[in-house]
Design a protein that fits this description.
Strand content: under 5%
Radius of gyration: 19 Å
Order of helices and strands: HHHHHH
Number of helices: 6
Largest sheet: none
Mean pLDDT: 84
């Protein structure tokens, strides 16, 4: 059992070293700022209202997630936006292959 804790401490120490690395300090700061903003928004408007806003702004969500920089994890961003990656893929497919003369919007 002690070996498990030692291995976990070693693993966590590597994570801390990575977080404190000067080369990614700005990215880490930006990520924490984003997390604080996200939690503040959820507290301010509520989870249900947040989900409604995302649903009503599908096009903006599609553009945001589709144009993420290479280093961003799409699945993590979808999770923050309270949608599943599968839901995003459906929205994106509908967006990409929409018929402009269809009566269905």
């Amino acid at each position: 059992m002690g070996n498990e804790f030692a291995a976990q401490v070693e693993h966590d120490l590597e994570k801390v070293k990575l977080i404190l690395d000067e080369r990614i300090k700005k990215m880490t700061f930006a990520f924490y700022a984003f997390c604080r903003l996200y939690l503040t928004i959820l507290e301010f408007i509520g989870k249900k209202n947040f989900e409604k806003i995302i649903l009503h702004n599908k096009e903006a969500v599609i553009d945001l997630v589709s144009n993420l920089p290479v280093g961003f994890d799409r699945n993590l961003v979808c999770k923050f936006l309270q949608i599943t990656p599968d839901q995003f893929n459906i929205w994106n497919s509908n967006h990409l292959f929409r018929c402009s003369i269809s009566i269905i919007r």
